[in-house]
Description:
The chain has helices spanning about 1-30, 30-45, 50-80, 85-110, 115-125, 130-160, 165-195, 195-205, 210-250, 255-270, 275-320. It is mainly α and about 325 residues long.
Amino acid sequence: MAGASFFALLDDIASLLDDVASMSKVALHKTAGVLGDDLALNAKQVTGFNADRELPVIWRIAIGSAINKLILIPSALILSLALPFLILPLLMFGGIYLCYEGVEKILHAWLHPEDHTQEDRRKAIQDPDVDMVSFEKTRINAAIRTDFILSAEIIVISLGVIREESFLVRLGVLSAVGVLMTLGVYGLVAGIVKLDDLGLHWAGRTGTGFFDRMFRSCGSGLLFLSPWLLRFLSVAGTAAMFLVGGGIVTHNIEWFHHQSEHVAHLLEGIPLVGPALKAISPFLYDAVFGILAGLAAVALVIAVKKVIGIFFKGGASLHSSAH
């Protein structure tokens, strides 16, 4: 009997781990947009520092990110136990916020094509009057605050995926996502920001042998690739934000989901390219919906800010008139 109970326990543990693994894959897939944006944003935030300070800065941000997860994951689990009806609204809000952020990024790039953030950062580093300890601390704290927002989005999206699962599965999935997200994102960030250093090291090799020439060529290639890689990550992250954010809304509102299926059915009837269009139509539908939802959210935020501004200006005018 004791042996049978032990093997039954092992079977339950194996089943639990299998559920955690499978649901973690789904959660990571759903959060791809935020992860891509998180990776690109953090890689940008740590560039511009002296080469010997890049890895220590990344390490301190990663520690801050881990602390963020230690706050967010228990909070999400408590929410799922005490107020489970709030998970879906928060999930929808997270999806709309992703779309809003995507449109904000595009508008910023369009309205401010010459962003001097990195240039200003390098000038600050080269200025002997700048307190580098204070400068680093300011940048690290800003990066940790940004990580908190992005981590909250990822945790809420993940919780929405597993909201029907048992508590132990939810705990396992959120913990796995938190660990993988922190190690994966900041490990890749460390690799990306050191690509140019590796390129310089290889490009500076001396010698006339075959391997020396090969390493010099690879080094030159890495130096050329590094800035383009950051740009690609930024673009891919933005596109994924629309796909994931739009998909969260369309998959959880029945009418929009039916419209997606209807569009796929109409596209299937197009000669020759119908099957291919049907295959990609859900992604296109989610992306277009995400862009439109983001534009609507940006317009709403701008309108609310204007109304608040008018209200406070009116109040200030009345106060001045009274005196």
